[in-house]
Amino acid sequence: MAATLARAGIRSVALGLALELDPAIDVPGLPPAEAAALAGLPLTRVRLDAGELRRRWRAVEHGAERARELRDGDEVALTVDLADPAGYLLHAPGFARILVAPDGGELLCEPEREGSEWTTLVFAQALPLAATLRGLEVLHASAVAAPGGALGGGAALFTGPQGAGKSSLAAALVRRGARLLADDTVAMQSRGGDLLAHSGAALLQLSAGEHERLRCSEHAELGPGANVLGKHRFAVDLRAGTAPFGGLFLLERSPDGPALERIEQVDPFALLATTFNLSVRTPERLTRHLDLVAALAATRRVFRVRIHPGTDATQLADILLERLPEL
Amino acid sequence: MATDATTELLAARMRLPQHVVHRSFVAETVVLNLNTGQYHGLNKTAGRMLEALDGAPTVAAAVPELAREYGVEAANVESDLIALCQGLLERGLIEIVESEPA
């Protein structure tokens, strides 16, 4: 099997998936992985094949159902349509279409523009969807391996609404020596009663505002950077592989901050809302999602982080680093 | 005074349909209807009532244990249980088990 993979494409690992990447696609943040790192992980192939995508979708598109639509103002930014037996068709107009097989085992890509910017759709949307279809639960969160043995050395996950500062906080912690596990999407899995967090792509994206706030030397601490689609993307040194769950931090902007507290009575609906995936609604997946939320709540390691509007990500990281050892 | 409908309900046996799952949390129970993908929240007491209903031979049979557990009059538990059953039945979150013919 390993020889077949080596011939067919580049092997990599992200979101708990063993990836076989078409050499014709340059997906950033997915470096080649050793065979040992792929062992036991479900395989997902990523292929550049517009003809096959069109052929499969044409056969079923009359019966397709819209599973999700994301808008950026008046513009449609992303649609997800589902039709059996082809799977889920992701379409970011002007960027690409990607057909994700119903079992998450294959991604067929059809770029709609030159260059490599369209591959953002691969790691930002298609792979998280494939991971969900492969049996993992993907949270809308950023994560670092907790530094200094805090949280039992496990993964600290940061989640919250758009603009809460998930990536900024992860970046600030990375600049303080923590290792990034994932930015924006974290694949979780319950294995033998233990909760595990899987690493994502070796990329970290900052908003223009956060990028501007940091000095050049601080940018350099993150790694090589580039401006992609209005965000500043850094190729960071990833803590690849899996890490035991350490804690989930719900970020919220509040004039009462900064404050960090353990949530004794976790609101399950707040945890359900941290999911990245709203498209897969099968009974198996919905049950698995609820089970993960119950398991997260049972850890008693869910924390609320109130962030005062005057507190920046660097200050917040320092507060967290001071408090983490006592959690 | 009990109406025919409540008498009938008290004598009925309830169960969770196959398309319904629930998980307990510290302060509430989340009930998920897998057919609709809708989540419902029950407070701690209603969650406990749901558990009791699911295992009892009739709705009425669940009353004494709950009354003991919460230290309240059986009549109060009975009316709360009936209201809960009606709400859950309306949402398809429990179903009445038809008695087998003799």
Describe this structure in words.
- The complex is a heterodimer of chains A (327) and B (102).
- Helices cover 28% and strands 35% of the residues of chain A.
- With 327 residues, chain A is an alpha+beta fold.
- Chain A has an 8-stranded mixed β-sheet with strand order 1-2-3-8-7-6-5-4, sandwiched between helices. In chain A, strands 9-10-17-13-12 form a 5-stranded mixed beta barrel. In chain A, strands 14-16-15 form a 3-stranded antiparallel β-sheet.
- The longest helix of chain A is centred in the C-terminal third of the chain and has 17 residues, at 283-299.
- By secondary structure, chain B is an alpha+beta fold.
- Chain B has one domain (4-94): Arc Repressor Mutant, subunit A.
- Chain B has a 3-stranded antiparallel β-sheet. Chain B has a two-stranded antiparallel ribbon with strand order 1-5.
- In chain B, helix 3 crosses helix 4 (74-90).
- The longest helix of chain B is centred in the last third of the chain and has 17 residues, at 74-90.
- The N and C termini of chain B lie far apart (31 Å).
- The A-B interface holds A 264-266, 268-269, 272, 281, 283, 286-287, 290-291, 293-294, 297 and B 19, 21, 23-28, 30, 32, 34, 37, 39, 41.
Q: What is the strand and helix layout of this fold?
A:
The complex is a heterodimer of chains A (327) and B (102).
Chain A: H1 2-8, E1 10-14, E2 17-21, H2 35-38, E3 43-48, H3 50-58, E4 65-72, E5 75-83, E6 87-92, E7 96-100, E8 106-111, H4 120-133, E9 137-145, E10 155-159, H5 166-175, E11 179-182, E12 185-191, E13 194-198, E14 203-206, H6 208-213, H7 216-222, E15 225-228, E16 231-235, E17 242-253, E18 259-262, H8 268-272, H9 283-299, E19 302-307, H10 313-323
Parallel strand pairs in A: 2-3, 3-8, 10-17, 17-19
Antiparallel strand pairs in A: 1-2, 4-5, 5-6, 6-7, 7-8, 9-10, 9-11, 9-12, 12-13, 13-17, 14-16, 15-16, 18-19
Helix pairs in contact in A: 5-10
Chain B: H1 4-11, E1 13-15, E2 20-24, E3 28-33, E4 38-43, H2 44-55, H3 59-70, H4 74-90, E5 95-97
Antiparallel strand pairs in B: 1-5, 2-3, 3-4
Helix pairs in contact in B: 3-4
